[in-house]
Specification:
The protein is an alpha/beta fold. The chain has 2 domains: 108 residues, 2-Layer Sandwich (Nucleotidyltransferase, domain 5), CATH 3.30.420; 88 residues, Nucleotidyltransferase, domain 5, CATH 3.30.420. The chain is 25% helix and 22% strand. It contains 5 helices and 10 strands. A 5-stranded mixed sheet has the order 3-2-1-4-5, with helices on both faces. A 5-stranded mixed sheet has the order 8-7-6-9-10, covered by helices on one side. Helix 2 links the parallel strand 4 and strand 5. Helix 1 packs parallel to helix 2. The radius of gyration is 18 Å and the shape is globular.
Amino acid sequence: MALILNIETATDVCSVALAKDNQLIDSRENTEGRSHASILTVFIEELFTQNKITPAELDAVSVSMGPGSYTGLRIGVSAVKGLCYGAGKPLIAVSTLQSMAAGFISRNALAGEKESWFCPMIDARRLEVYTAFFNSQAGFESEISAEIIDENSFADILAVHKTYFFGNGSDKCSSIIRHPNAQFTGGFLPSAKDMITISEKLFEQKEFKDVAYFEPFYLKDFVATVAKNKVLK
């Protein structure tokens, strides 16, 4: 059992959750857009102050490792590395898509749907999404990939499994993938709270990352573009 600070910044959501012995103690979240750079450290400091905890008392720090927003991932990993270096604590990396799957299954009480699969989607450019398939225990059933969606996407899986699609990439796919086994659920947002069970398990297994050399899982090479609204994705 451990005291772990979990940080999620892979998408528009900036979320921090403090957990002990696999139970949530306190959390902070902002879902209004990419203001991670200005609010992440504020959230972390608030959790420490509110709960009278110092970084030295943590057993580990966990970060959502991607795939997702290049900028968001860099901000989250940089903050976690700073905490781990400063306090001498181990770094835990949690798959963003796996924590999304775990959160969706838990929030909707779907762990009993043994034959169903779960497909979190993170929005990429145009009709592309970052995605993977998971079973009802949030175990991987496929590798993580970047997929360009068309009407035949995942036809082989949908022929066998009822599949729930969710996350900010699923909205643009709901009008394209029309198979009767495809269930689209809007409104799902990632949360650091969904990382708690996974990070606790990784801590128990001592699956730590090298703080000096760890990099987020970007999935694809970053391409800098200057959009009209000057937002980097």
